[in-house]
Amino acid sequence: MGKPKVKRKSTLIDMTAMSDVTVLLLTFFMLTSTFLAKEPATVITPSSVSEVKVPDSNLVTILVSGAQPKTDGSLDRTVEGKVFIGITGDKDSTYSTEKVRKDLLIEAAKLYNERHPEAKVDFTPSQVSAFSKLGMFGMPMKDLPAFLSLPTTEQDKIMKEFNPAKVGIPINDNRDMTKLNEFQIWMDAMQRIAQDYKNNGSVDGRGDPLPPNDHFYKALKQTGDGIAVKADKDTPYSTIHYVLDNLQTLKLNKFSLMTALKSEND
Amino acid sequence: MAQIEQSDKGGKKKGAQKKMSIHVDFTPMVDMNMLLITFFMLCTTMIKSQTLQIALPSNEKLEQSQQNKTKQSEAVTLILDTERDADGHVVMETDPETGNIYPKHIVYYYEGKPFEGTFKDNDVDGDSFIDADKLKLKEQRFRGNTDGTTNGIRSILHERNKEVMARIDDLKKEWKAGTLGSKKEENDSIFKARAREIRNDSTLTRPVVIIKAGPDASYEAVISALDEMQLNQISRYQIDNINATDSLLIMSWLKAQGKI
Fold first, then answer.
1. Which of A115, B91, B96, B142 is most buried by its number of CB atoms within 10 A?
2. Is A266 a residue whose pLDDT tops 50?
3. What is the extent of the structural domain holding B169?
4. Which A residues 109-168 touch B at CB under 8 Å?
5. What is the ipTM of this complex?
6. Are residues B213 and B176 in the same domain?
7. pLDDT tens track for B11-54
C-alpha cells in the first residue's frame, strides 16, 4: 500500500511567446514614433474642424508662448508673446534638418550683421553645429553665440527659467522691409535659403552646388504649409497679430495655424 | 536563469544519446521590453496636430482699378472680442438654452455698412456715440449646432450663404451614396472639385465676410471664426485689423445696452 504521489507541477511559464509579442510591439513603436520636440513653452492649441495634417518635413514652426498662471492664480502676462522658431528639413538627406538649420543660422547672422554693423555676431563651427541640434530656438541674436557655447543642461536651464528679458526672438510691429526686426530677419533668411535650395543648393555661393530642391520653397511661398503658427488658445489677438503682420510684410502671406481636431456634428 | 534539464527517464542504456531540453527564462527579457514599450508610448505622439490654412492679403497697395470692391449687400463684418477677468483669465459663461459652458467670446456683427449717412446724422442726442436706434451692430456667440439646427453666429452666416449650402448639401448626399465616381478616391476628388466650384460660383448670392479681431480677442476666437467660414462653405473672407470706427460701434452698442 503506497500513498499516491502528488505530482509536483512546475511553475515555470514559457515566456517565449510573450517575449515575441513585446519585441514586435517595441519595434512598431520605435519605427512609427516621432519624438515630441522639446518646446520651450507649453501651449494648448485651439480646436478646429480642419483636418489638414501638419507636414513632417519642410516646416517652420513658430511658437508663441501664452500667459502662465502664477501661484496666486492670476496670470503672468510678462511671459506672453515670446516667439520661438523650430525648423524641420526635407526628407531628402541632402537637405536634412541639420543642414537647413546650419544654413539658416549663417544666413540670419549675415543679414543681422548687415543691419547691425556696430554689434556684429559671429558663430564658431561648434556653435553652428550646436544650433543645428536645437529643436526650437528663441533668443535675441546678440545672446545666441554665448548660449550655444553652453552645455545642453545649462541651455535647458535657461529655457526653463524663462526670464522674459532673455528668451524669445525680438519682435515688433514693423511693415518696413528696410527695418526688419529679428524675427523677420530669421524668416527672411529662411526664405532666402529656400530660394537658394531651389536654384542650386549652395547658399550664397558657399560650398559646392547640390541637386536643386524646391520642396521648401514651394511649402513657404506657394502652398502655405511651410509655416505653422502655434499659439495658446487664450492668447489675445493683439499678441498674435505681430507674428501674422510680420509674415505679411515679408510676403509670406500663406501659412497655417496649428490646431487640435474638433469634431463637429453637421 | 537558463536551465538545462537532463531527462533521464528509464535506465541508462549504453550508446543512447542524451536528450537535453533547454529552458530559457524569458521573464526578465519581457520585463525589460515592457519598460521600453512604456517609455516609447509615453514619449511619442501618435496624433498629429491639425492645421488651418489661411492666406492674408498682400501688403502692397493696389491701384484703385485693380481693387475688387465688395458690394455692400454682400458684406458681413464680424468683430471678435473675448471677455477676461481682472486676472486675465478668459471668462466662462453658461448658455441658457443648452446649459453648456463656453468661453465668453463675443461676436459683434453688422451686415453692409455699420450705419447709413454720416456719423453726425446718427448722433442726434450729441453724446458722441451712435444712437441706439440707428446702430446696425448686433451681438452673437459661437454656439455650434444642437440637434441639427444652427445656433448663434452660425445661423446668421448659414442664412447668408444658404444658396451655396443647399447645393453643397445635395452634393454631399450624392457623395455619401458614392454615386459621383466609381472608385472611392474618384468619388472624393469629384466631390471636392464640385464643392469648390459651388463655393466659388459667382451666380449665387454669397457673402463676403470680414473678420476683425479686437485686441483682447483670444486666438481661439479667431480660429472659431475661421472654422465658421469652413463649416458654412464661405469662400470669400479676410482677416482685417480693427479700426477706430469699429471701436466706436462697440462702445455705442455697449452704451445702448446700458453696460457703460
1. B142
2. no
3. 162-205
4. none
5. 0.81
6. no
7. 455 555 667 777 778 888 889 999 998 888 887 766 667 888 88
Closest residue in A to B224 (Cα–Cα)? A48
pLDDT at B123: 75
pLDDT tens readout for residues B160-175: 888 888 888 888 888 8
Size of interface A-B (CB pairs under 8 A): 187
What share of chain A in percent tops pLDDT 90? 35
B227 is a domain residue: yes
How confident is the model over A4-26, as pLDDT tens digits? Answer: 777 777 777 788 888 899 999 99
Residue B127 and residue B85 share a domain: yes
Q: Quick one: B90 and B199 in the same domain?
A: no
Residue among B92, B111, B113, B87 at smallest CA distance from B102: B92
Same domain, B121 and B89: yes
What's residue B59's pLDDT? 67
Q: Does B34 touch chain A (CB under 8 A)?
A: yes
Domain range summary for chain A, segments of one domain joined by + = 61-261
Do B86 and B133 have their domain in common?
A: yes
| Count of domains observed in chain B | 2
Residues B107 and B219 in one domain: yes
Q: Does B29 touch chain A (CB under 8 A)?
A: yes
SS3 A249: helix
Question: Residues in chain B with pLDDT < 70?
Answer: 1-18, 45-48, 59-70
Instruction: Tell me how close the Cα of B40 comes to any Cα of chain A, in angstroms.
Output: 6
- What would the mean pLDDT of A183-199 be, rounded to a whole number? 91
So what's the pLDDT on residue A186?
95
> Using the beta-carbon criterion (under 8 Å), do B231 and A264 form an inter-chain contact?
yes
Interface test with A, best of B51, B168, B243 (most A CBs within 10 A): B51
The residue among B220, B227, B232, B243 with the most chain A CBs within 10 A of its CB, best to mutate, is B220
